[in-house]
Every structure is written in C-alpha cells, then in structure tokens.
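Format notes (please read before filing issues)

Several people have asked whether sequences and structure tokens are stored in separate files. They are not. Every record keeps both together, in the order shown below: the sequence lines, then the token lines. Line labels are part of the format and must not be stripped during preprocessing.
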Amino acid sequence: MTSVDSNRIFIAPNRADDPALAELAALLDATSDAVYFGTAEGITMANQAGLDQLGLRSIDELAVPLGQLQRRVDVRDAITGQQFGAGVGVFARALAGQRSTREILIRRQDTGEERVVVATASPVIRDGVVVGAVTVNRDITDQRRAEARAAESAERLRIAMSTGSLGSWEVDLATGGMEASAICKANVGADPTLPLSYEGVMALIHPDDIERVRASVRRAIEQHVDYAEEFRVGSGDQTRWVAASGRVLYDATGAPARMVGVTQDITVRRTSEDLIRQARDAAESASRAKSEFLAVMSHELRTPLNAIGGYAELLDLGLRGPVTDAQRVDLARIQKSQRHLLGLINEVLTSARLESGTVGYQLDDVDVEDAVSTCEALIAPQAKEKAITFEYHGCLTGATVYADADKLRQILINLLGNAVKFTDDGGRIDVRCDASRDDRLAIDVTDTGHGISAEHLQNVFEPFVQLDGGPRRNHEGIGLGLAISRELARGMNGDVTVTSEVGRGSTFTLTLPRRGLATAQ
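Then the structure lines:
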C-alpha cells in the first residue's frame, strides 16, 4: 500500500503513480465525508474517512473485483434491510454512467457498529468514456438518531396531550387565521370539519367572558407576557369550561407574528369547585345559624334558671315561712341542679361565642399563685366529698402570666373540676408550676384517675366528646369544658395539652406566655 499526503489518502499500489489520482487526493483531504474512487476491478483510492467508515485498515481489502467486494463489505439498504447490492449498487450504476443516491446501512468490520449513510455515486468520464466511479458517503447516523428522538418526543407529547384532553392551536396575528387540533376544536365546541379563525373562537365564548379573554390576549401581545385564561363556551346545559394558555412569538423586527398555545376542557374541575364552594357556604351558614340559635337559647334559658335559683334561696332563707329539714334538703337539690344547668348553658354560650369569634380578652400580668389558690378553694369541697388528696406544690414567688384573669380562672376550674370528676374516691390530684422558661409558664394538673387510651386521647379536646359516653355514663357534663379551655388558652397565645396512661391517670398542662410577651389572637 502506498500512502499520499500524510497517510490520509490511500491509493492502491497498482495506481500509485497515476497523476490524476494524486491530484484528486489533494482535493479529498479537505472533506470529512468518506470518498472512494474505483473501477470494476475494485476501489483504487479512499480517504481516511472512507477506511474508518468501513472499519478497515488497508485499502488493499477494497482493491478487489466488484463481485468480491459485495461479499467483503457489509452494506444494507436502509429501507429494505437487504444485504449487499445497496451501497455497491450505486457504485455499479455509476460505472454504467448513471449518477444515483441512496440511503444505506454500513456495518464496520472492526467494531460491528452500524451507521446510516447517504451514498452518492457519479461516473468519471474521460473522452466520453466511463473510466471509473466516485462514491461519496455522508454519515447521517447522528441526524437520524436525533430525528428518532424528536419523533419519540413528539409521540409522547401527542399521547400526553390526548390523555389530558389538551388541544393545540396557533394563530396568525396578521390575518387572524388559525390552525387547531381536533381536540382543541372539540374543547371550544367548534365544527371539526370547518376551518377555524381567531374571531370564530371568540364567537364561541360566553358573552360574559369574551371581553376578559380579549383583554388578556391584548395584554399578552403588548406586555410580552404569557396568556392564560379560563372561560365558558356553549350555553345552557351545554356550557363547558375551557382553560387556554399560550405565548406570543415575534418576528425578526420584534413585531408580534404568531400566538401558540393549548386548551383543556376543565368543566369537571370547575363543577367540582362550584359544588365545594356551595357546600362550604352552606356549612358556614349552618354553623352561623347554629351559633346564633345556641346564643339565643342560652340567654332565654338563663333567665328562668336564675329566677329558679333566686326563689330557691328566698325559700331557704325562710322569707316565705318556716322551712323543715326535709324541705331544706329538697331546696339544696334544686339549687345544685340549677347551678349545674346554668353551668352547662354558660359552656354552650361560651362555645358559640368562641366559634363566632366574639370572645374578647383583657390581657394583663396575672399572679399565678392567686389564680390557683382561688380555683383550689372552689374545687376543695368536691375533692373533700370524694376524699381526694389535693396538693398544690407552689410556684416561683411573684410568677405571672400574660392572660385574661377571668379566662385563666375558667380554664383552671375546668381542669381541676375534670380531675376531681374522673378521679375515684381516695385518689390524688397534684398541681405543679414550671416557670423555668423565660417566655412561658406551664401549670400541670395531674390526677390518679383511670387514664385515657391512646385511641381516645386525640379526641379529648373535640366539642361534645364524652369519653364515658352513652345513656348510662357515670359523669355529668356535655363535653365542652376541655374544648373551651383549649380555645381560651389559644386565644391568649397559649395552649392546653394532655398526656395520659390507662390505669395511672392523666396530666393536663396549661401553657401561657409571661411578662406581656404575647398578643391575644
């Protein structure tokens, strides 16, 4: 083998002295395409790209008669996949005086890699006689792979758009002409068999939405922003909601040229949103009506109950005549029942006010010792009646919380009252104060009651929840005390939490801010 021009152009030994080939070799050095020159006796010249494309080391492997070359080089037709004859075929036709081009597949002899090539062969004519042929092979493998990837992406996009009922559209802003997919036409209710235009789409939009849509399009064009709108099409029972979004494309001069985008039928979503909104409005209306009813009824019931309590006290004082011991017992029962009912009504009224957001807070520094002592005195008779040991372990002298004094006492009475209620005779209640944190103070109320199971623990602060519920429950109340206590604490930027263990008891913790660091919610 003889090499010419830095070993990049290869000429068969029997043609190495041909001056014509030497001149041609100089021209071929500048191209990255594979170039072959030969006759019916075989390929007599090739550039480096030509040998690399075939995976060969020497041109000697190509310098064989045409029939042998077909068996030596693995070449297939890119369309039919037929082996042999395709790449060699264009070369053979060129030797017959015909210029031809064909897309072929070439398998490299060294690596087995298959490449896609466009082979163009032309006859070499001298003095009117075909003396050989030149074949130029351009490797288009990367191009075909890119086209395949683009086709796959386009198919995935088509499937995604079809699955999501996304229709594509494009508007010529100069003429108003419009190209739209079948899904787009279906989304807006257009005739699928007729051409569509911008004004044609506008005519399909609900009259109450059309000006908003036009304004949005103008804004997208003038302010160079994306377009996005939701509007109705059709009328009556046939009304549907459509979401449209798009982008304006500008020409080289910066003038708006086209607008492209997608549409989607969102009727189901909008209908669901309307139903949810209606349900929410109905629930809020019902909640307001309930709160107003409870407030009115609570006020209406408190008046006669106060009167019952007042008259019972007058009778007990003997202002209506002498009272026997048996009568005093009955009057005591009447007064106890009156206070119990009045307490329940007050809880309902407070709950209704909390729910409606009408509870006010008078925040100030409140002495914790005074608040606990006052509530302890109120609860002590109930604890004594059940032989419950009650112990307050004290707090840091002068410790205060930033709270509403009345609301703080109401919470403590609820927590202490529940502790007495759910602790068996002879049990124990401990009240501790944790003032170790600078910004918060915690008051723990711990009892030795039955405790609360884990499955019920998360519900103890829900309104009207009774852990011993049922028609034969052992404890009085309607299940509002803890719910009210927590809401009051949160209204003062605090909280009420609980830990409990069945068989060992529960600890309810009231946490409130200190030294005016909080603001009522």
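For reference, the curators noted about this record: The chain has four domains: 2-143, 164-265, 271-356, 364-513. The chain is about 40% helix and 25% strand.
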